[in-house]
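Q: Joint fold for the lines below.
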Amino acid sequence: MKIVHVPCLEDNYAYIIVDESTGEAAAVDPVEPDKIVQAAAEIGAYLKLVLTTHHHWDHAGGNEKMRVLVPGIKVYGGSIDNVKGCTDKLENGDKLSLGTDINILCLHTPCHTRGHISYYVAGKAEEDPAVFTGDTLFIAGCGKFFEGTAEQMYQSLCVTLGSLPKPTRVYCGHEYTKKNLQFALTVEPENEKISQKLLWAQHQHHAGLPTIPSSIGEEFETNPFMRVDLPEIQAKVGCGSPVEALREIRKLKDNWRG
Ligand code: GBP
Ligand code: ZN
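A: Joint structure:
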């Protein structure tokens, strides 16, 4: 499978996933439909599906226009998330396919929004799978808890996404990596993996390149919100359990002005 980044708005990413055997493609959060349709045409891809991670306008706001530009396209979104332009509602565990080689597993990952869906995408056996995490899991960060609790975010991040194979490539909804790593260093100043990745993220930024994808394995090493099972992280934020630590780190980030 081929995965193409389409930078949108200020710092959002849409993505095009292409089944290379057939040219069939899915667009993830195509908030700027003209850009997505043009990018698909340039690579000879046929858009069949829209995969919406959640109802926020900077993710779902292009869906209605996608249906006008690509007649017959199916627009997926979480069943309880009220996604604009949705034609097909998804439940946790639903499976979709794209072309001949791509299978998509829909994972309910609530908290940022109630009905947020992450998409686990597997291509040919020899390729690493990918997961599109919207605003639930960011590189070195996570989404604000707009419609859920720390318990739910713990389940979404550390259990549902955390159970995916370690090499799974992580494609998230925003380019927040540099800021997230700067914050991560305030939690764990001596974590070398974080400081190395921050230097790399600064290089990528200067070169105008994305910091995405990461991997589930790399997130467990550098993302403070996915490291809350570690007693030393809990101790650093003065908490006695993973969920309490996650709530506290989110509160610290909400009040942090980097
Ligand atoms: C920054 O860091 O760049 N501008 C600031 C924060 C996701 S977008 C921007 C911000 O709050 N981003 C949201 C988030 O979860 N950030 C994680 C973090 O700061 O650690 N959104 O656009 C946001 O979800 C939105 C759209 C929100 C509609 C509510 C509604 Br309703
Ligand atoms: Zn959002």
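Q: Anything notable?
A: The CA atoms of residues 109 and 152 lie 8 Å apart. The chain has a mean pLDDT of 98.
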